[in-house]
UniProtKB/TrEMBL annotation, chains A, B, C, D:
The keyword Nuclease does not apply. Residues 11-71 form the HTH tetR-type domain. Keywords: DNA-binding, Transcription, Transcription regulation. This is TetR/AcrR family transcriptional regulator. It holds the Pfam family TetR_N. Residues 34-53 bind DNA. Gene3D superfamilies: Tetracycline Repressor, domain 2. The keyword ATP-binding does not apply. Signal peptide: none annotated.
Length: 210, 210, 210, 210
DNA sequence: AATGAATGAGAGTTCATTCAT
DNA sequence: CATGAATGAACTCTCATTCAT
């Protein structure tokens, strides 16, 4: 029991650090974020930081892992669904919702800025894999049902859906007037159009649920 | 006259440094790129580097300025054209072509990674402004001619065209199987579809000229 | 009574730590030995370590004190002997035997490496004093009996006996082929020769008892 | 020419650092010697220190290398000599002279204190090899001429000569009353006796030249 | 104009030590 | 009594930048 409590406590503290680091990385970039600033943000001493993460890089990787895990876990929520296009658009919409947290685009840029580090490249690759694994089955199923275009391979369609969400994130970060909430519906509509060009518009009045 | 020659010589050497720095920034990110590495790549001494650029940051800004200037100058090439959609798709296609230089996506990430520096943010903003200025007149003209959708404001359409090219660049950088050359046509087609949903396909057999 | 038991228990645990620390200091030097490594070796928590010793330095001093105490106590074992040279050679031989424990030369070096700390200098001085006090009476007695050379003062002879044992320890530590067991007899013989140059060899067949 | 001058300048500066580091290592031990203290002693900035030596450890190794080189070079000075025992005693005497520099024993201890580092162990081994190589030919030659005992192998005699000089150094470091100058002659005499027990005393009035 | 030796501010990280449990 | 999470002082080392040549 104590072991369990300790582990939970440990995990909770790790999360505090991860959250603080996410904030600081997003605001200053990877190299601009000093470990001292992360400690200040997390309200801990520098020794404590290195008690939980062996290096500064490990913190970044830890954040990425949390994200990847979330992608994997969220994939389970769609099991049993029968509307592949609906699922795909929900996933796309959800990524738009995540972009609304102003720290997300900043952090994504910070991570991309140190992608030349092999560990970061591997972690981003793993994240992309998780995203592909979440999308691909539904693209395939949609193609089988005739609801998704078949002039492109499923893998390519997946890549293009990710292109849309990546570009969306980038625009949100770069353009003050381009807000996640304001452009969300157009993202979903564009994705729908991409998945099934010229297809009938979705259920009228429909707003893709979040 | 001598002044002119000197100036040309000066400019030429600056370009050598800019090119070397572009390579090193792309490969290692902004902070990962040491001035020593840039000097090595440019085959100059460190003293010389700081003779041409006052700080390391100034080199990055210099690269961005060259890019922005290119955007501005390329805009002039379209003057007098009568096919707004064609122009827009050419611009989009050209940005895909640029993504084929493997240094481009790497450099874009490096720059984005230090976007928290106000000077960089300003330079990227200026670049984005130049891109918007290049696109916007043709979107307006297209809307006037009924060749571009009018359910979205011209500014918003411009943003979404940039979203597509940004996302394209990002995918090229992230996914080894996603090549600029292989996906170029689909990018142009997707842009066309976005500009005029359900519109007749362009002149058949047409490949958007580079 | 309980007090006594507690004290014995306390002393026993101290010894466990001292032994563990001896091992770690010998293997990694004073600074190279982290308190964490000592705790691991002693199978205790860091809190416990500092419950028995106030500082890391105190552990080193504790080890040295144990050694010094041993020197003092061993001195008593020779009381009543009538063969001063025999006693001296036994002491020298015994120091060679101690060098056979591979941790001893390593620890001696570790301690010498931090001799610049006044506390360590004092402790080593105290140890040297104990060694001198153990040797000197027998040198004097030997000189009185005509069994030890008198062209050197007793103090100087003592120093040179220590020079031999120190050098022996150092060689054992430095030269893999120079083993304590293999060179022991030559050490004793050299010491005998030094004590009484040209003197008749000791009792024939004699091997200095340990 | 410039190259030669630069190289000479570089070497001279390296020597300044080596000398300063020797002083500081001797006074505070390896770990106790901060790079800041070495810089202060050498009157240079920290950047300069690391311009000449990549790491603190490299400085220590550099000092050891200088010592080893000196041993090798000094060996050449004895070529052509016909009195092996005289040569050996000169070498032994010279090591006693070196011990008169108060920094030498301190530095030797500092180095021994971090012998657990493989690089240091290797450098000390190389130094010992150089010393053995300097001594051994003369021991062999002495044995051939009947001037050195033959009951021990040449290698063993070499080890014991080194034992004497090591022990001498250690005593000088540990005992204030034991000075290099005061004990030098006894060291040489003891070495002579060891090389040829019971041998005739050397040429009368002879003092081993320095 | 071109150089690179010299600089020092500032970074990440280690580890002896404390103290609440 | 025993523990180990938390601490922060202090360390080594990097690197953009300067300036005498």
């Amino acid at each position: 029991m104590a072991r369990t409590v300790d582990q939970a406590r440990h995990e909770a503290r790790r999360l505090v650090i991860v959250d603080a680091a996410l904030t600081v990385f997003a605001a200053r970039g990877y190299d601009g974020a000093t470990t001292a600033a992360i400690c200040r943000q997390a309200r801990i001493g520098s020794g404590t930081l290195f008690h939980y993460f062996p290096t500064k890089l490990a913190i970044l990787l830890g954040i990425l892992e949390y994200g990847t895990r979330e992608v994997r876990e969220s994939a389970a929520a769609y099991e049993g669904r029968e509307d592949p296009v609906g699922v795909l658009l929900e996933i796309v919409g959800r990524s738009a919702d995540e972009a609304a947290d102003p720290r997300v685009p900043g952090f994504v840029r910070a991570a991309a800025g140190v992608m030349h580090l092999p560990e970061v490249a591997a972690a981003l690759e793993a994240d992309a894999d998780a995203q592909r694994a979440r999308l691909r089955p539904w693209v395939e199923r949609g193609q089988e049902l005739g609801e998704v275009r078949t002039d492109l391979t499923d893998a390519r369609i997946v890549s293009w859906l990710m292109l849309l969400t990546d570009g969306f994130l980038e625009r949100v970060a770069a353009e003050p007037g381009f807000t996640a909430a304001g452009e969300r519906d157009l993202l979903v509509a564009t994705a729908r159009e991409f998945l099934h060009p010229g297809g009938r518009p979705a259920r009228r009045g429909g707003r893709v649920s979040r």
